[in-house]
Structures are given as C-alpha cells and as structure tokens.
Amino acid sequence: MRTRRRLEGRRLAALAADGFEKVELVVPLRALEAAGAEVDVVSLRRGRIRGVNLHMPASRVRVDRTIDDADPGDYDGLLLPGGFINPDLLRQSAPAREFVRAFVASDKPVATLCHGPWVLASAGLLDGRTLTSWPGIRDDLVNAGATWLDQELVRDGNLTTSRGPQDMAAFVPGMLDAFATTSPQPARAAPGRESDRQPEAPVGWAIAALRWSPRPSAAALAGIGLAAAAQRALHGPDGQAWWTRAAGRAG
Questions:
Q1: N or C: which end of the chain has fewer CB within 10 A?
Q2: Does residue 2 form part of some domain?
Q3: Which positions fall inside the DJ-1/PfpI domain (predicted)?
Q4: Among residues 139, 130, 124, which one has the least CA distance to residue 158?
Q5: Given the residues 10, 22, 97, 115, the one annotated as active site
Q6: For 127-156, what is each residue's pLDDT tens digit?
C-alpha cells in the first residue's frame, strides 16, 4: 500500500535556471516535499532565480546549491523543469550537462517535461531513448536519436517525461512513482516504432495565452534596457569582467 510519505529519506535535485516555467518547478516541488523527499534547487548562480508564466515574469525561487557546489552522488534522482529559457541556458553550461550525465550514468531516475529534454539532448543522452516533450522540440530530440511520442506521460527505464503543463495531472504521479522506484526497468527503444508525426499546428492554448497577454509597461522596458546596459558596462563588449581587464592592464 502506498503511503503519503513514500519518498521519506530520498534526496533529490531540481536543476533549474532563470526562465523556468513556474508551474513546472513549483508544483512538482510541493508534491515531492509532501511525499517526504528533501529537494535541493540547483542552479547556475546563487540567490533567487526568476520563473516565468509563458513569457511573463513570475515569482522567484531560492537556490540551495550552485552547479559548482552540487555533487550528483549526493542525490537519488533529478527533476528538470521546462520553460523555453531555462533549459536553453542549462544546455549551454558544461557543468550542467555533466551534472545530468552523472544521473543517467548511475541509472538514477530523471523526470522532465516541456522543453526540459533539450538539456538531455545537448548532453548526448537521447540516442535510442523513447520520450515525449513540448511538441515544438520534437525534431531536436529525434535528431538526437530519440523516439518521440505524442503522449501525456512516457516512461523509458530511468527516464520519465511529459509534454508540458497541460499534462501535469499525469506527470506528478508518474514522477513520484519514478523517484520511489529503486530499480528502474532497463531503457529500451520502442521496438520497430517510429516517432509520432509532427503536430499540424502549434499548441492552441499557448497561442491564445500569448495573444491576450498585456503589453509590458514603459517602466518594465526601461528596466530591461538599464539592466542590459549595466551588464555591458560590467563585462565589456568582449564579455570579460572589468576587474579582469584591469588586472591584466596592471600586470
């Protein structure tokens, strides 16, 4: 019989960066903690990372460990939320790619949805695997060697995937089952099965949500411009921090 605290004693990592889809991190986090798991939010920087609701800024989440401080060996499983900005930042980070590879190499459970599988593709982990994702990245995953299925939940060995927020009701129980499993079934490609076809049109609810989103205020646009100018002044056009350039001149 399943108990509410069936993940008691499990320690999990949630790897996320700025631009994570809020519902895809916050809802799974609450479910994992309610099941008794200890979850560390691991990110590329310290402090609090910014979530989004589609493209609109949302609340922030506190980072427990940076990617440089976190040891995959300390964790029993990995959660990779989506959002199109968050995984795009993570996939460009060599330490993040190596962090994810360590979980797969140890056959620890990995749960991801939406654009999260982008990170797995960039880490070279999808050849021969079967999964799902946000439909818009289907071709990227197929080109990385995966079989892509248009289903709300796909389990393949230690990998659990869903298409996006619309599948949260299926993803959360599937994720909990995956993290409660001590010996996942071996990964296997769907025998003789090709990937499902590309969608005929973009996801309708996402288009509608973007269409009716409010315009950003002048203050918000000015803030973005000031932040970009400050970043450029801090790091310079070559991306090198001003104190590094100064040290070089002093030497």
A1: N
A2: no
A3: 12-172
A4: 130
A5: 115
A6: 999 999 999 999 999 999 999 999 999 999
pLDDT per residue as tens digits for the range 198-248: 776 666 656 566 555 566 656 655 665 666 666 566 655 555 554 444 444
Residue 103 resides in a domain:
yes
In the chain, where do the E strands start and end? 11-15, 20-21, 38-43, 48-53, 56-62, 65-66, 77-80, 110-113, 130-131, 147-148, 154-156, 159-162
Catalytic annotation present for 235: no
Q: How far is CA 47 from the centre of its chain?
A: 18
38 lies in some domain: yes
Give 177-193 pLDDT, tens digit per residue.
999 986 656 655 555 67
The verdict on 42 and 136 lying in the same domain is yes
145's tokens: 């060697």
Same domain (yes/no): 224, 106: no
- pLDDT tens digit string along 1-35? 454 689 999 999 999 999 999 999 999 999 999 99
Q: Are residues 38 and 110 in the same domain?
A: yes
Domain identity same for 76 and 161: yes
38: how many CB neighbours lie within 10 A of its CB?
15
Residues 175 and 228 in one domain: no
The structure tokens listed for 151 are 């289903």
- How deeply is 221 buried, as exposed, middle or buried, from its count of CB atoms within 10 A (0-12, 13-18, 19+)? exposed
Structural domain count, the chain: 2
